[in-house]
Each structure stands twice: as structure tokens, then as C-alpha cells.
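I am writing to request your help with a piece of structural work I have in hand. Thank you for your consideration; the sequence and its C-alpha cells are set out here:
=====
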Amino acid sequence: MLRQSILLLMLVAGVRTLIAGEQILEIKDIGYDQVYYKGFVLNHAKDVHIQAVGAGGQKVIRRSSNSHIDRNNMFSYAWIINADTREMVWRMTIDNTDRESGSDWTRTFDGKVHLDAGEYEVYYSAVEPSFISLNGGFITLGKVFKKIFSNSDEWDNEADMWMIHIDGVSDVLSTKEIKERRFTDKKEAVVSITGLRDYKRYVSGITLTRPLDVQIYALGEGFQGKMFDYAWIINAQTREHIWDMKEADTDYAGGAQKNRLVREKLHMQPGDYLVYYKLDDSHSLQEWNSNPPYDPFYWGIVIRSSNKLEPGTVKPYSEHSKKPIVSITRVGDYASKEARFKLTKPSKIRILAEGEGRDGDMFDYGWIVNMETGRTVWKMRYSQTSHAGGASKNRLFDGVIELDAGEYIVYYQSDDSHSYEGWNMDPPDEPEWWGISLFPVGTSTFIGKVKEEKPEEQDILAQLTHVGDDEHVRKQFHLSKRSRIRIYCMGEGDEDEMYDYGWIRNMDSGDLVWKMRYRHTQPAGGASKNRKVDTIITLDPGNYIVHYRSDDSHSYHDWNTTPPRDKENWGITIYNLSK
């Protein structure tokens, strides 16, 4: 009986429309977990006749702490948005539909809706409902029993009736035409990041040659103060955030409560900018796990100019267009790598580092050491990283630091698994940057040429290596002028104490001029107690003596655990850099 009455209404409406010389829009044959769409044009303001069949619960959900809930409590329904403003102008709700007798879920709309002249898009979505939502949004014992003992497919038993029929429109736009118009709109935008997949991070770069007022239109997922799919904009040179999509600043985007929307104006100065969008592991255009937003195909961010764009105002900008100062990337397992650079004056440096971290600790990470002081001036810490895409343990640091003039060593080390060599979980969005890279910022950075001399190409003043257990070895050297010397020393230490270590004394004065201290050491690879120092100091003319002392275990001749990677240089070597 229900099917017959619906067919009769559609037939009468269709005859009336044909007589008036107008057109009919119809969407039917609805399957769930898909979004169907078409469009129509009205040449002048008028009432259009809408007939629609969908499904939903029995009452509006007034209050719920479940982010998946749609308060309108429909799980199969149609809606209409204005194609120019992207705003919803009509939708099926519990309040404007009637529940069909003899059916638990089927609801119908049959009425007239007044719309202004313009272009409109019509959507229909059916998403498998949560059993909690169907009767009010709260868990009850009755609902649990009904879920367990009833037919789990009961909600879509009448899916073959779901449809929307609109008569009296001036012109009908096909799905293909709507898709082409969306493509043109996004192509003309300053930035468009849409059509996205779960668990990914996207970036688009632009250069503005003159000031520009823009309108930001962004959709994402957020709830109770947190964002899960969201966008942000940074200054590419300073890494400063100039705009962030925060849940508190968003509006309801339709569908599930967690669908959020931002419409915001922003004034942008000339410069280089990066627009990012990040998604978590579910609920996107790839697959909606609850009701989609009213404008589902704009999930992401679109930035449009508020005024007509002058030619040449916007140019593409590449994230990595500048040549890096140092690049240690595509790092594999069990790696311990380093590279040097020199700054001839205080400079800002951008650090891009990817590594593995979890629960506050980093396992693959980089750091920077000042060669003259031996101090770590920057280290990749979990608390300062963000998700790099893929598995949650893929971590990213992308920021700017300022360094004094001087010589530096960049280190990177990795553990025994999950690296560019072989991922044991999903890789990051940009796996080729696994490691650490340093880039100059602006034009203020001046990098002096660094000659990466091999140890054998440097003048060795003293060398005490291949040191065994219970040894105390010494060697003297002389400096005829004030000189810069490089100290390369490896030994055993942990918990702020060294057991195998070196030091240097001035033989003329008896003063201690350098000593290997744990806090100034770096991992040497292998066991964590393998430590090393690679630093530069300046010494006055005079006579010096180098010492190296070892304890009763873990040495070149008898390792009691994994040796360092450069085990041949276990001990201390002094190089003269002032030839």
C-alpha cells in the first residue's frame, strides 16, 4: 500500500510538471554508504514540489555526547544546498516528515518549498545507523536486547523506496555536470585541498606577490574541543602559524555532530605560505562512518580571493625549493649518521626531521651539536613533534631555530626497525624525508663552505685507539702556535658517568684543558653505553699530554655487548685543524 501511494503521488506530480513545460529531478535506487547528487536551476523564485522517502528514528535527539549522532535522527535522507553560497536550504528531518504506518523507520516528505532564483545541488545519503541513535540517542537495556535478538538488517528493509523527486524546476543538472562545475570552482581557487583520503597529510604552497584578502572555506572533523581532520596555514619561511582550524571557532556542518565548518576571512601579506590538511584514520569522503556534512565533496580546505585576482598575484611555491644545508634522509635501521656545517654569522635555520616515537620517547631521531662547546643545541623531542601521517608513531618536527656563528655537527640515529629500509607499520606521508634536513631561512643565513675532510687527510697530533681493559695510556704533542684542534673520542659511560674516557692536560702549567664528560657525549651506535665526542677547541702554544683510561670490561679487545659502529677508533684521536 505504501509503495502504491508513493508511486501515485509521483505520477500525478510528473503529469502536472509536463503540462507546465517544466522539468523533473529524481534520485532513486539508493544504496547505503554512498552520497548521490544532481542539481537544478530556477530561473526565478518559486515554490518547488518535493516528494522524498527516507528513514530515521522516531524523534529528534535533543542531547547526546556521541559525536556520530545526527540530532535530526535521519539515517537515509535528502537535502538541498545553494550552489553559490554552499549553504543548506532544505533537508529531511523528523519534524518535517511523516512516519509511514506499518514501518519502523520509513519517513516521507510531500510538500512545497520556496526557493530563490539560482542554482542548487541535491544530495541523498544513507549511512548504516548506530542502534543507539534510532530511538533517542541513549543506551538502554531494551535497545541492547533489541540489537542482539532482532534482524540486524531491519533498518534497510524498505531501501528500494528511498528517493527524492522534485518537480517544477527550470533545468536539471546531471551528476557529471555538477562534478565539472565543482572542478572548475576548485581550479580557480587560490588553494584547493579536497578529495582526501584517511590517515594522510596534504600540503599546498603558494607565493603571494602582493597583499591579498581571502575567504577560507574548510570542513573537517572535530568534537568537544578537539579536531581530528583539520587545516592550518603557516609562513613558509618563519614556520609561524598564521591560521589554525580550531574546534571552538567552527560551526556545525550538517550530518553527524562531529562535522565542522569554517567560513573565515583572512588578510595575507606578500610572502611564501604553506597550507596543510591532516586527516585521522576514519570518516572522510573516502568512507563516512556516520552522516556526512551537507557539502561532502568540499571536505578539506578551499581558499578563494575576496576580489578579482590581479595576474601574477599568486604563484606556486615548492615546500623544498631551497637546497638544504644538510640532508641526512632515507635512513634505514641501525643507522648512525652525521654531517657538518658552518655558520659565518648568527642565522635562522629550518629543521625538517622525521622519526619514530611513541609515548613520549623517540627511537629514530636527530640532534645538533656545537663542535666548539660540545653542547647539544637542538634535539628532536617527542613533545615538540606532530603526526607525520601513516602510523601514529611516525613523528615530524618542522620548525625554525636560531644558531650562533660556528661549526656544528648534525646527527641522526635509528633503532632496529621501522625505517625507510623497511616499515613495520604504515609509512609517513613523505617517507623520503625520514631523517633530518636543514634549510636556510630567508636571505639572512650565510653558510660557510665546509670541507668534509677524512680523518686520514687531517694532521694527527696524537692517537690512542684500540684500547683494551684496565689500561691507562698517554701521548704527548706540541703546538708551536695558537691552534684549533679536533677531538674525536669514544668510550663507555651511562647515567652521567664515564668509565672509559680521555682528557688533555697542559704539561707546562699542569692545567686540565679538556675532559670527556658524559653530558657532552653522543650515542656512538651499538649499545647505549657506547658514547662519543666530536668537538673542536682552541689551544695556546705549548706542550700537552693526552690521557685515556679504561675500566675492567667492554673494550676494543673484549666487548661484553654490542660494540660501537666505529669500533676501530675506540679511544681518542687529536687532529690539528690549523695547518
Remarks:
- Residues 2-20 form the longest helix (19 residues).
